[in-house]
Amino acid sequence: MKLIRDAQGHYRTKRGTAASQTEILEAAEQILRDRFERMGTLSSPSDVRAFLRMRLAGLDHEEFHVVWLDHRHQVLAVDRLFSGTIDGAAVYPREVIRAALAHNASCAIVAHNHPSGIGEPSSADRTITEILRTALLAIDVKLLDHFVVGSGQPISFAERGWL
């Protein structure tokens, strides 16, 4: 969606109607997504933090996303695969595998948010990460990282030595 800023600093749609906060946030996410997908090769966990934080931090329910990468770590796509409630989202490895094959991905970075704002990974987060790592390896896709997004800096499993 294309938004236009008027002389008073208000955002409007192309039709001239006032843009809602949701429309503004959707446009901002699309801008970040476009920039992120044009970044080229990802070289560190810090490369993805701003994008994931913008995409996930403000949600009032849990969502699980995957960044799909080729063998040179260039971004192929970003998918929201699962959406849940205020304290959890069911993640199905079979669906993650299906998406990996659809994108012909070589690598993946997974991420989910904690609507509570507490970014510390739970034991369930660590368990599903290991299940996904094993499942993806079976089809030759490497899980590079898992980020948990809370109110602070997103936490990287790779940086903690968990992957």
Describe the secondary-structure layout.
Layout lengths: L2 E3 L5 E3 L7 H17 L8 H11 L6 E7 L5 E9 L9 H11 L3 E7 L9 H16 L3 E8 L5 E2 L7
Parallel strand pairs: 5-6
Antiparallel strand pairs: 1-2, 3-4, 3-5, 6-7
Helix pairs in contact: 1-2, 3-4
GO molecular function, one term: metal ion binding
Pfam families: RadC
InterPro entries: MPN, RadC_JAB, UPF0758, UPF0758_CS
At the first level of CATH, what is the class of the largest domain? Alpha Beta
Radius of gyration: 17 Å
List SSEs in N-to-C order: EEHHEEHEHEE
Mean pLDDT: 87
CATH architecture call of the largest domain: 3-Layer(aba) Sandwich
Count of extended strands = 7
What is CATH's topology name of the largest domain? Cytidine Deaminase, domain 2
- Main sheet? 5 strands, mixed
* Relative helix content: 25-40%
Low-confidence stretches: none
List the strand order in the largest sheet: 4-3-5-6-7
Global structural class: alpha+beta
Which range does the strand content fall in? Answer: 15-25%
For the record, give the distance between the C-alpha atoms at the N and C termini, rounded to a whole number: 37 Å
Count of runs of 4 or more consecutive helical residues = 4
